[in-house]
From TrEMBL:
<feature type="signal peptide">
    <location>
        <begin position="1"/>
        <end position="22"/>
    </location>
</feature>
<keyword id="KW-0479">Metal-binding</keyword>
<keyword id="KW-0732">Signal</keyword>
<comment type="subunit">
    <text>Monomer.</text>
</comment>
<protein>
    <recommendedName>
        <fullName>Virginiamycin B lyase</fullName>
        <ecNumber>4.2.99.-</ecNumber>
    </recommendedName>
</protein>
<dbReference type="InterPro" id="IPR051344">
    <property type="entry name" value="Vgb"/>
</dbReference>
<keyword id="KW-0456">Lyase</keyword>
<keyword id="KW-0046">Antibiotic resistance</keyword>
<comment type="similarity">
    <text>Belongs to the Vgb family.</text>
</comment>
<dbReference type="InterPro" id="IPR011217">
    <property type="entry name" value="Vgb_bact"/>
</dbReference>
<dbReference type="InterPro" id="IPR015943">
    <property type="entry name" value="WD40/YVTN_repeat-like_dom_sf"/>
</dbReference>
<comment type="function">
    <text>Inactivates the type B streptogramin antibiotics by linearizing the lactone ring at the ester linkage, generating a free phenylglycine carboxylate and converting the threonyl moiety into 2-amino-butenoic acid.</text>
</comment>
<dbReference type="Pfam" id="PF24684">
    <property type="entry name" value="Vgb_lyase"/>
</dbReference>
<keyword id="KW-0460">Magnesium</keyword>
Length: 330
């Protein structure tokens, strides 16, 4: 496994492989891990999440795998999800397992953290080709998920019971999150809106309109106060909705034509985004409304959904088959 690091020095100049490289803000270290394994070609390394033991799960959308990266030595354990698999999102569940929105098999997958055994729960035939996207667990241990072809649903792992609903405005259901207060919210990329799942029993949804028309709301993440941060693909904005008073705030990412793909809020409530146009990860500090940019050292990185642990932001470079770790607060 190849590993490449950029470490910020006192001057802000980074060194990589013994030569000068791009500037990195002081207090940060960037490390790239090769996501390929012997015999593999394109992996399509995309959504990531922490496994809880220092390793990181990441989806291999192109080769139908879930992978477990050990950053201590760069080794990868490959888990094949099944024939035709094309996993999109992964999160760690309350049971410690990896839970995957498996679009290729139109199923929710669970990968056991101990023996890596794969279980599948397929969507009803009525919702074939849902284009599954993202999942989250609620306080009751139910797994909620979205599908871009206009669906959202829930799985009760204990009863192995699944319910799926048509999204109220058709295609577009994409990122989903849970607030500390227990609220469930998703965004619609094609539908350009934020939606609250008001009644988890019936699946009833309430639409909330963002202030920017046609913004292309792609991902959503809650901060510690329950404020909802949204990456807007079409507008290049990051927006924030506070359900407590219904207010909105909007900031445009730096650059000429930003394209905000993912959003993740770290434990200190700093907001991390990916900008495909800038080929960079962007960190936004709501306290002083400042941006820091971390460009990739390779073109076409295309980082999908980020995640992380205290002191570390992680993302999968789907275009380069690498995993990026940004250590902060050094």
């Amino acid at each position: 496994m190849q590993r490449r690091e950029l470490l910020a020095l006192g001057t802000g100049l980074a060194l990589a492989a013994g030569r000068a490289a791009a500037a990195v803000p002081p207090g940060f270290r960037l490390t790239w891990f090769d996501a390929t394994t012997p015999g593999s070609s394109r992996v399509g390394s995309r959504d990531v999440t922490a496994a809880g033991d220092g390793t990181m799960w990441f989806c291999g959308q192109r080769n139908g795998t879930l992978n477990r990266l050990n950053p201590r030595d760069g080794s990868i354990r490959v888990v094949r999800l099944g024939e035709g698999a094309a996993p999109h999102g992964v999160i760690r569940g309350p049971d410690g397992a990896a839970w995957v929105t498996e679009g290729g098999q139109n199923a929710i997958a669970r990968v056991d953290p101990a023996d890596h055994r794969v279980q599948l729960w397929r969507l009803p035939e009525r919702f074939a080709n849902a284009n599954l996207n993202t999942g989250v667990f609620d306080r009751q241990g139910l797994y909620w998920f979205t599908g871009q072809n206009g669906v959202y649903g829930r799985l009760d792992p204990k009863r192995e019971a699944m319910q799926v609903w048509e999204a109220p405005r058709g295609p577009g259901a994409y990122g989903i999150t849970r607030t500390p207060q227990g609220g469930l919210w998703y965004v619609s990329l094609a539908g350009n809106h934020l939606a609250q799942i008001e009644d988890p029993e019936t699946g009833r949804v309430r639409i909330v309109e963002p202030p920017t028309p046609g913004q292309g709301a792609r991902r959503v993440w809650s901060d510690s106060a329950g404020r909802l941060w949204i990456s807007e693909w079409n507008s290049g904005n990051v927006s924030m909705h506070d359900p407590r008073d219904g207010s909105w705030k909007v900031w445009r990412l730096p650059g000429q034509r930003p394209r905000a793909y993912s959003v993740w809020v770290d434990p200190s409530d700093k907001v991390w985004l990916t900008d495909f146009a800038a080929n960079a990860v962007v960190r936004f500090d709501p306290a002083d409304e400042s941006f820091l940019s971390f460009p990739s050292d390779r073109a076409g990185a295309n980082i999908r959904q980020m995640d992380g642990v205290p002191g570390e932001a992680w993302g999968g470079e789907s275009g380069t088959d690498r995993i990026l770790r940004i250590q902060y607060g050094l």
